[in-house]
Amino acid sequence: MLKNILLTAMLALWLPHAVQAQSDLPDLGEVSDATLSLADEARIGREVMRAMRESGQMLDDVEVSAYLNELGGRLAAFAQLPGGHFSYFAVNDNSINAFAMPGGYIGVHSGLILATQSEGELASVLAHETAHEAQRHIARMQAASNATSPWLLAGTVAAAILASRAGGGQGAMGALSAGMGLSISNQLTYSRDFEREADRVGMQYLAKAGYDVRTMPMFFARLDKANRYSDNAAFAFLRTHPVTTERISEAENRAQDYPVVMRADSLTYLLVREKIRVLGQTPEEASAYYHTALERRLFLNEGAQWYGLARARLAAHDLAGARSDLAEARRRLASHPMLFTLEVAIEREARNWPAARRAVHRGLAAFPQNLALQLADVDVLIDSGARDEALAAVRRQLERRPGDASLYRRQASLYADRDDLRYHAALGNAFYYEQRYGPAQEQYQLAGQAKGNDFYLRSSIEARLREVEKLLKDEKAQSGKIGQ
Q1: Nearest alpha carbon to residue 4 among 102, 86, 109
Q2: Which of 40, 47, 63, 129 is catalytic?
Q3: Radius of gyration of the chain (CA)
Q4: pTM score
Q5: Among this protein's residues, is 47 annotated catalytic?
Q6: Among the listed ranges 94-108, 171-185, 275-289, which one has the minimum average pLDDT value?
Q7: Hey, what's the torsion of the CAs at 370, 375, 376, 382, to 10 degrees?
Q8: pLDDT tens column, 418-430
């Protein structure tokens, strides 16, 4: 499967890294850039992200994504990587893992989020992975290997993607093995030092962002202990990030240099955690979990448990139960946008459009900048058949976020079977901002053939089509380099 192939490739090739541990940050200049530039890393990362999106393995949820990027962004603000970019995303996988990809893409499995017992523990993992990327470990791995070129790294990833698209899982693994065999000895030699540097630098990010750095060795030690008493393959993080007693002790000793910080978990962390739990289980499993947790008082926050139970009831189409549980959650929690988006979801399921709109408006009155509520506003208008209002709402949102592919998909749905020119143009824009240039080219060509007299729109389509054709040509040229 593409999921296993790509994650094996990324974790085997990119996470074990080489560097001498030292008290000051290392010089990341000429050697790293000479072997793998930031532009090279960005190109490779974009290609893998595109494949992951197409495979459906990413957890496509606006609230989860917004939270991870807000938390990760707080940490990345202290990463000294001029020209670097960081993007955080969730992978829909119950195993406990996280990884850093070329181009600043930081992935975290849903299973790892559920394994954390505080927001500080989750922040510690994101800080560790951010440090891997900010310290240019990928490029420095390349510099440490005389046999491996940056294009072999890209070629290995490309081989996995192409083989998986063709259904050839075994062929992809063969290509990966060939690529890894050229540099595996160097990777194994240096992996401990890289992990220690990521611990040390990650702790700096944690401290500056206001978290207690002790959460990092605490979380790693707990995973290590649990893994010793379990023959469970779920602890993939420990295979890709080797944890030793010595490394944990070093991190614990280093933590003594920092003050103890008492920081409460954010309500967003607590609610996102429960939303992920429900998404990863059947409604029956999730309901049973919450009933047991509430009965035995086994939880981080009681209100968050009622929120999770409400979501489980919604998934089971028990709308009365979902409304009742949401009311229980509200009695125990401060006002939060995720409580409003859940109310909207319940009323949408009930097809009670007036109630859904009232919930959206109350939510936006309290949290006007919340993206999930803004999108919910558009979705309720679409569901209720208020096409003109929905189009106006989409246009307003596009003025704020012109690169949001999900908005263009909503726009396309509103033009379907009504306006072929605008339908294909909107769908082409969605593919374009998802960096899926082949499908984008096809949609722009269909838009060019459609009827319509909008001169400005046709001009923009023609310009975008020329840009996409150039991008596809460049991609083909890069593929030629990889094959040389």
Answers
A1: 109
A2: 129
A3: 24
A4: 0.84
A5: no
A6: 171-185
A7: 160
A8: 999 999 999 999 9
Higher-confidence position of 285 and 30: 285
> Shortest CA distance to 88 belongs to which of 79, 103, 78?
103
C-alpha torsion 58→59→60→61, nearest 10: -160
Residue 453 has which token pair? 């007299």
Q: How far apart are CA 393 and CA 422, in angstroms?
A: 16
Q: Tokens 């209100």 map to which residue?
A: 303
Selection from 165, 163, 92, 100 nearest residue 136 by Cα: 100
Q: Distance from CA of residue 111 to its chain's centroid?
A: 13
Smallest CA-to-CA distance from 407 within 394, 425, 418, 420 is with 394
Q: Compute the CA torsion angle 356, 361, 362, 367 (nearest 10 deg).
A: 120
Least confident of 135-139, 353-357, 364-368: 135-139
478, 154 in Cβ contact below 8 A? yes
Q: Please name the residue ranges forming H helices in 229-334.
A: 236-240, 245-255, 267-279, 283-296, 302-315, 319-332
284 catalytic? Reply is: no
Place of tokens 């263009």: 408
Rounded to whole angstroms, the Cα distance separating 16 from 242 reads 9
119: nearest Cα among 63, 71, 61, 64: 71
- 19: which 2 tokens? 């560097």
- CB within 8 A of 187, min separation 6: which ones? 13, 16, 17, 18, 141, 145
- Write out the two tokens for 323: 């409304």
Q: Residues in the chain, how many?
A: 484
Predicted pLDDT of residue 242: 65
Out of 40, 195, 199, 343, pick the active-site residue.
199
CB distance 210 to 261 below 8 Å: yes
- What's the maximum distance between 2 C-alpha atoms anywhere in the chain? 70
At residue 174's C-alpha, the angle toward residues 170 and 180, to 5°, is 140
Give SS3 for 88.
strand
Q: Which of 125, 133, 131 is nearest to 217 (CA)?
A: 125
DSSP-based three-state secondary structure for 108: strand
Question: What tens digit of pLDDT does each residue of 34-66 get?
Answer: 556 777 777 778 877 887 887 788 899 999 999
**Residue 365 is which amino acid?**
A
Which residue in this structure is represented by tokens 């229980």? 328
Q: Are 35 and 142 in contact (CB under 8 A)?
A: yes
Residue 302 buriedness (CB in 10 A; 0-12 / 13-18 / 19+)? middle
Residue 212, classed as helix, strand or coil, is coil
